[in-house]
Amino acid sequence: MGKRKKSSRKPAASSARKRDPLDTTFTCLFCHHDKSVTVRVDRKEGIAQLACRVCDQRYQSKVNHLTEPVDIYSEWIDAADAAQKEDHGTRRPAASSSRPAPAPPSVDSDDD
C-alpha cells in the first residue's frame, strides 16, 4: 500500500469566510449623537446595561448566553416606542384656547 497524495482542495467556504464583529456602540435615540451609547453585557450576572455618555439615558435588561449588544439596543428601541405609545394613549388632548370652557351643571332650587 502506498501513501496518499495530499489534496489540493481549498478549505470549506464557512471557514474561509471572515465574520465581521457586531457593533457595541450605537446612536442615542434621545440626543442623536453617533457612537455615544455603549452596551455592557455581564453574562455571569445575567444583566446587560446600556448607557449614553452624552445625555446619560440608561436601560437595563436580562440576558442569556446568546444575547449580543445589538439585541439590547433593539430592546431599548422597542421599550422606548412602547413607553411613547403608552404616554400618548393615557394623555387627554388639551382644550383649545379658542373654545369656551364648558359651563358647570346648574343646580335648580325651583324643583323642590
TrEMBL record:
<comment type="similarity">
    <text>Belongs to the ELOF1 family.</text>
</comment>
<dbReference type="GO" id="GO:0008270">
    <property type="term" value="F:zinc ion binding"/>
</dbReference>
<comment type="function">
    <text>Transcription elongation factor implicated in the maintenance of proper chromatin structure in actively transcribed regions.</text>
</comment>
<dbReference type="GO" id="GO:0000993">
    <property type="term" value="F:RNA polymerase II complex binding"/>
</dbReference>
<keyword id="KW-0862">Zinc</keyword>
<keyword id="KW-0863">Zinc-finger</keyword>
<dbReference type="InterPro" id="IPR038567">
    <property type="entry name" value="T_Elf1_sf"/>
</dbReference>
<dbReference type="InterPro" id="IPR007808">
    <property type="entry name" value="Elf1"/>
</dbReference>
<dbReference type="Pfam" id="PF05129">
    <property type="entry name" value="Zn_ribbon_Elf1"/>
</dbReference>
<keyword id="KW-0804">Transcription</keyword>
<dbReference type="GO" id="GO:0008023">
    <property type="term" value="C:transcription elongation factor complex"/>
</dbReference>
<keyword id="KW-0805">Transcription regulation</keyword>
<keyword id="KW-0479">Metal-binding</keyword>
<keyword id="KW-0539">Nucleus</keyword>
<protein>
    <recommendedName>
        <fullName>Transcription elongation factor 1 homolog</fullName>
    </recommendedName>
</protein>
<feature type="region of interest" description="Disordered">
    <location>
        <begin position="83"/>
        <end position="112"/>
    </location>
</feature>
<dbReference type="GO" id="GO:0006368">
    <property type="term" value="P:transcription elongation by RNA polymerase II"/>
</dbReference>
